[in-house]
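Researcher: We're reviewing a set of sequences before deciding which ones to prioritize for further study. For each one, I'd like a predicted 3D structure that I can look through quickly. This is ABC transporter permease. If possible, include the structure in token form so it fits the rest of the review sheet.
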Amino acid sequence: MRRTLTFAAATAAILMASTAMAQDIKIALIAGKTGPLEAYAKQTEAGFMMGLEYLTKGSMSWKGRKISVIVKDDQLKADLAKTLLEQAYNDDKVDLAIGTTSSAAALAMLPVAEENGKVLIVEPAVADAITGEKWNRFIFRTSRNSTQDAYAAAAAIPATGEVSVATLAQDYAFGRDGVAAVKTALKEIRPNANVVFEEYTPQNATDFTASAQRLFDALKDKPGKKIITIIWAGQHPLPKIADLKPERYGIEIAPGGNILPAMQIYKNYPGMEGAIYYYYAFPKNPMNDWLVAEHQKRFNAPPDFFTAGGFAAASAALTAIDKAGGTDTEKLIAAMEGMTFETPKGPMTFRKEDHQALQVMYHFKVKGDGKDANDLLELVNTIPADKMPIPVRNKR
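Model: Here's the predicted structure for ABC transporter permease, in token form for your review sheet.
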């Protein structure tokens, strides 16, 4: 009788283990799909799902386990983002989560990941604090941070001659972090350039006349090269600043990268230079080739800024699960620290110290003869990750 019970118990244990192995891989994707950054969120979702499709060869299963994605809209609200992540971990029982669009919402989510002991891959929020002073060991980020944007922007500035820079940014975490990062980056790799003035506006600002005048006044009498660097999310102020003719003072505008609809205004300013996280025509690798071809086929447009980011997050998640041999959180963390994974931009690596993805950036020049509305940029230079000495800012 005891032998029968022992056999039955062993059989049950095997069946339970088999069932556990066969359970879905559950992933929550949280994004700000309602509000002014809706386009960013939709691109992230499209890229994430296309990434899963590419990596699983269309099966939507990984190592014998079906992948289940639960998408939640935080409406760019920090409190809602926090609540949705709590629900994802506790009610939906997800193995890990991806998100979110707004830096403020992402910052609210960080302690939730720590409290629940679950991995959160931050994409596409960029505030430095996410992998800086607000970071914890459950946080990994595939998106670039503000400092990576800043080092790329600095690398696009001439390395010789006196350069005066004035910044225009939105008055919240993304904008202020971005300006602070630009100042640090210039000191590190372009000591010939200095930020001489900072202008901050509300996120929803539409009238830039007064801001432009303050920027012009700060720069117009400076010797050497004079540049306005714009750090912006959403509808870009470039046309309104350019309409006020900064060139009459010898002032140039250096915008950052943005989504294609926002950058279509750039074609009116051929020769303008800046730096960008991703532009569909720049990376040359099979993953990006597939993404560009399939996205064009499905959406009649090339993949965009945040599409590549969503794809990168999918690659990070599945590469980690593969390397960890499952979805156990501690094994995932061990696997992800120092992990290199493929993305449409090429390889990224999670830095062990703060789990920030180290990655290339791109120095661009605006084309004067693009063949269509999205043929906007030409590549000046690919900026390697090791040429951007991003400081470690967490308290680990």
